Amino acid sequence: MTTAYLSTAYFAPISYYVALLAYDRIVIEQWCNYTKQTYRNRCHIAGANGILSLSVPVVKPDTPKCPTRDIRISDHGEWRHLHWNAIASAYGSSPFFEYYQDDIRPFFEKRYTFLLDFNEAIRQTLCELIGIDPQVEYSTRYAQPAPDETDLREAIHPKRDIAVTRPEMHLKPYYQVFAPKYGFLPDLSILDLLMNMGPESILILKDS
After folding, report:
1. Is the pLDDT of residue 26 over 90?
2. Cα distance between residue 107 and residue 121, in whole Å
3. C-alpha closest to that of 24 among 132, 131, 120, 128
């Protein structure tokens, strides 16, 4: 049985879902210290003006080191409204936006307290929409993976090229609405793949 360790992620990138499909067992890390500027609270989508980063605001922890599982979502500002509008604007003309919008919109209408719970609800819904059923567990402590296990907790990161950190992943190009303007943009949020490829998303993940 193959095992991979992943961090929690907000509308995670395609490489994250490639891992969910490729490994027999997934351990999602919840005891790592929360750090900024990771996929834990942000995602990248493709809009008319290029790549757009969407970040979920979080409540500043009381201590410098706070486990990710204890991070709370901030209600400051109208980020839910802004994120949904950005997604609708980016993918409104994509082939499958109308098909999936009723599954995605509720995440911007319901208020979640903890970031981990929010991310996991998103992941579970997206796995169902794509048609994958990964065996997911949650870490009970911060652990070092065994030699035969794969640690992707820092490899899948907004500031790192997945082609460099995990060269065995060959993310397959697919149709993107704005490709004629910007060329193919790799490893965006899983939303980009789903909205553009719909039921064929799983085939892209398998080929990657």
Report:
1. yes
2. 8
3. 132
Q: Is the pTM of this model over 0.90?
A: yes
Rounded CA gap, 183 and 103, in Å? 28
128-152 pLDDT tens trace = 999 999 999 999 999 889 999 999 9
CB-CB contact of 193 with 59 (8 Å): no
The CA distance from 20 to 5, in Å, is 10
CB burial of 32-62 (b: ≥16 within 10 Å; e: otherwise) equals: bebeeebbbbbbbbbeeeeebebebebeeee
Amino acid at 119: N
Return phi, psi of residue 9, to 5°.
-150, 145
**Per-residue pLDDT tens digits for 152-181:** 999 999 999 998 999 989 999 999 999 999
